[in-house]
């Protein structure tokens, strides 16, 4: 009880000192406020960017491997011209992989036919991203439909003139109407719309189904050469539940090398890409960003900490006479020590709270103006309290210790 009473009195003295010197308090807060605001702001911005990029990567599927000509990450001693000479995945490759890959739950073949103009009567949408896929595409890629349905297996095999379109295309061609059942013109052919993708919005990687037109591959092969390198064909393989992605990757490497009849001494002439490649790259990038942000913020906080220490030395000097009176009336050294330490910590906490408040305010403004959600989670609030308290203790310990060791007689005589 005695300790709590002394702690309360220390808080009272500290608050009294801060109220009496408002300008000095305000100037002391600026450095800490800027430092906390910088660290929390940078970490929140990095977390927001990371989450948005990670959600984009997650669309690729954590257990899906993409067999392509080009790797997502270059490295090693593999010559660039070898990449150029690689063949693209073919329908034969697709059939063999589907036949031999025992760890695969689904295998699909995908080509990108480029940006095209889609027409419905007098309405036109330009820049539609036309793709053609085999039936199991819906198992290897994550998407939702807001209207209609996906291709049936017979429609896919028979190459029926049907399509699933994106939300933006549906809005452009059929304003205030249902899209399912409408006949549109795609690459000079009449195609019946059977479904509409749910609105997604463009993600950080620039991928979105909103402007996609999805066609059955065996319909598109009557219009374009689906094995042409210009259409970037790829094979997507989704692993069975519980099968490690590395195990599936090893099996696919063996299957592809067998299909393409590569000898043991020959390099792979294909790439096995997976989301973990992008995730590893993101980890390295954000590690650098976090380090840079922390360095900038810590430098700002150190400047603020020196300011707090300077103010505390001045405060001790101004209150030397009062300290002498307190000690002559029986105040213990730890009471004087607590009094000044609490004042330093309070200053830093006030600066931290203001800095955190500014970050929240900026996040709210960005949400209202640019529809950009900045993540400022509970961990940032905890970080603010830890940093503010630490800086307050470090900045105030020497002035507080000096105040607690003053001789009461000499202190009372001072002016």
Automatic annotation (TrEMBL):
Residues 295-408 form the ABC3 transporter permease C-terminal domain. It is a multi-pass membrane protein. GO terms for molecular function: transmembrane transporter activity. It holds the Pfam family FtsX. Keywords: Cell membrane, Membrane, Transmembrane, Transmembrane helix. The chain crosses the membrane at residues 26-46, 292-313, 334-362, 382-403. Belongs to the ABC-4 integral membrane protein family. This is FtsX-like permease family protein. It comes from Arcticibacter tournemirensis.
């Amino acid at each position: 009880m005695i300790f709590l009473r002394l702690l309360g009195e220390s808080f009272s003295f500290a608050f009294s000192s801060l109220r009496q010197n408002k300008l000095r308090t305000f100037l002391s807060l600026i450095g800490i406020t800027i430092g906390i605001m910088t660290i929390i702001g940078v970490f929140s911005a990095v977390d927001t960017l990371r989450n948005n990029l990670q959600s984009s990567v997650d669309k690729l599927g954590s257990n899906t491997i993409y067999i392509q000509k080009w790797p997502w990450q270059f490295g090693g001693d593999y010559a660039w011209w070898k990449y150029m000479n690689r063949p693209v995945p073919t329908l034969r490759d697709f059939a063999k992989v589907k036949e031999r890959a025992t760890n695969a739950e689904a295998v699909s073949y995908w080509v990108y036919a480029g940006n095209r103009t889609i027409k419905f009567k007098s309405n036109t949408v330009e820049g539609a991203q036309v793709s053609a896929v085999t039936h199991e595409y819906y198992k290897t890629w994550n998407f939702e439909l807001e209207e209609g349905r996906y291709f049936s297996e017979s429609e896919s095999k028979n190459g029926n003139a049907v399509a699933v379109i994106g939300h933006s295309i549906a809005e452009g061609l059929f304003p205030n109407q249902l899209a399912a059942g409408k006949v549109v013109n795609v690459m000079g052919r009449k195609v019946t719309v059977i479904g509409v993708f749910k609105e997604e919005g463009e993600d950080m990687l620039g991928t979105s189904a909103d402007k996609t037109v999805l066609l059955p591959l065996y319909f598109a092969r009557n219009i374009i050469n689906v094995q042409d390198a210009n259409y970037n064909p790829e094979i997507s393989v989704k692993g069975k539940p519980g099968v490690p992605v590395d195990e599936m990757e090893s099996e696919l490497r063996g299957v592809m090398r067998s299909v393409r009849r590569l000898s043991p001494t020959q390099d792979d002439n294909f790439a096995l890409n997976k989301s973990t490649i992008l995730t590893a790259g993101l980890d390295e990038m954000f590690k650098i960003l976090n380090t840079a942000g922390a360095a900038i913020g810590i430098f700002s906080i150190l400047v603020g900490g020196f300011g707090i220490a300077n103010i505390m030395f001045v405060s001790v000097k101004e209150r030397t006479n009062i300290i002498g009176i307190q000690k002559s009336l029986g105040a213990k050294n730890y009471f004087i020590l607590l009094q000044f330490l609490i004042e330093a910590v309070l200053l830093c906490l006030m600066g931290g709270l203001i800095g955190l408040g500014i970050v929240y305010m900026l996040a709210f403004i960005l949400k209202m103006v640019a529809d950009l959600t900045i993540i400022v989670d509970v961990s940032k609030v905890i970080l603010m309290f830890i940093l503010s308290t630490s800086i307050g203790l470090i900045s105030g310990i020497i002035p507080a210790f000096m105040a607690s060791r003053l001789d009461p007689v000499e202190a009372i005589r001072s002016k």
